[in-house]
Amino acid sequence: DGGITQSPKYLFRKEGQNVTLSCEQNLNHDAMYWYRQDPGQGLRLIYYSQIVNDFQKGDIAEGYSVSREKKESFPLTVTSAQKNPTAFYLCASSMVGQGSHQPQHFGDGTRLSIL
Amino acid sequence: AQKITQTQPGMFVQEKEAVTLDCTYDTSDQSYGLFWYKQPSSGEMIFLIYQGSYDEQNATEGRYSLNFQKARKSANLVISASQLGDSAMYFCAMRELNYGGSQGNLIFGKGTKLSVKP
Q1: Cβ neighbours of A97 in B, within 8 Å
Q2: Cβ neighbours, 10 Å, residue A88
Q3: Contacting residues for B56 by C-beta, under 8 A, at least 6 apart
Q4: Would the CB atoms of B105 and A103 count as touching at under 8 Å?
């Protein structure tokens, strides 16, 4: 079945440590996205990429980094510079084209906590 | 200013009844899209329904329909015949079009928690 796979489901970070969240899709989508969700809040965009080897900052990119070396993969690194990393992280992908109608499809999320 | 406003933090509905979840949006664009997503307690975001700003008819997908009132900038989600499995967070989102017609990014509201009572 086509879909988006995020791993791990749960992740713990020690002080000063970088951690990487995995996101893989087999939907042949060009665009991929990372969102952060805090309790009682909507989703906030961290980074997005519309094509391989290119990505743009979203609304809350500070303390995060990404790469897009393959169409299928868009890993997110939460660096030690992110002082409040505890949140639920969602990866999404979508087709790219003219018009506003392409929905984003989401993975199951990774819950990151500080040890 | 918030672009997407969901004024109901929580809603209760009796099983088998209909429920309306409110969403208002703010944009000066003529061309945009509106989406509703469901987020169960397990966390995944499930796409439910889409309405384009130029669509003349309200979108429907099974038990979901979107009550689109363009002049009032509202895009309310109506769930008919509620089921226990409908208990979840529901998010309204909007995508504006960038210059040249390419897609902008999704902007999400803060969500409404729906609880269906047996």
Answers
A1: 103
A2: 17
A3: none
A4: no
Burial (CB count <10 Å: 0-12, 13-18, 19+), residue B28: exposed
Look up residue B78 and give its two tokens. 């109506």
Minimal C-alpha gap between A99 and chain B (Å): 6
Give pLDDT tens digits for A18-75: 999 999 999 999 999 999 999 888 899 999 999 999 999 999 999 999 999 999 999 9
Identify the weakest region by mean pLDDT among A46-60, A93-107, B23-37, B91-105. Answer: B91-105
Neighbours of A56 (CB within 10 A): 12
Query: In one letter, which amino acid is B41?
Result: S
Answer whether B8's CB lies under 8 Å from B111's CB: no
**What is the Cα gyration radius of chain B?**
14
CA quadruple B112, B14, B73, B62: dihedral sign: positive
Give the nearest chain A residue to B104 (CA atoms). Answer: A100
